[in-house]
Design a protein that fits this description.
Layout lengths: L11 E2 L5 E2 L7 E2 L6 E2 L4 E2 L5 E2 L4 E2 L5 E2 L7 E2 L6 E2 L4 E2 L5 E2 L5 E2 L5 E2 L9
Amino acid sequence: GPVCAQPCSFGSFGINCSEECICRNGGLCDHISGQCQCTAGYIGERCQDECPVGTYGPQCAHKCDCQNGAKCYHINGACLCNEGFKGPSCQDRFCPAGLYGLICDKYCPCKEANTL
């Protein structure tokens, strides 16, 4: 407004709201400075980067708790299980030991000592 009593409209900042915000991935722009406040799962000056592998959440402050080589989703930490594993942390085998296949109906020809 004329006496700076009103914040800038969404997407702009600065004197007379003349600057355009360039935050990415849903980041919010401070109406005065233009500094981005990133949403969960993103970091960087413009919220352009996903959290580094092994971290997630706001400011990538949380550590993932996934097992058996699974990666976690950078936003909420949900584990993305590799084939053959299930469970919240990918801690369980999909098939019982010694079996494999879509319905776990095939017997593994491998020796137990040589498998995961």
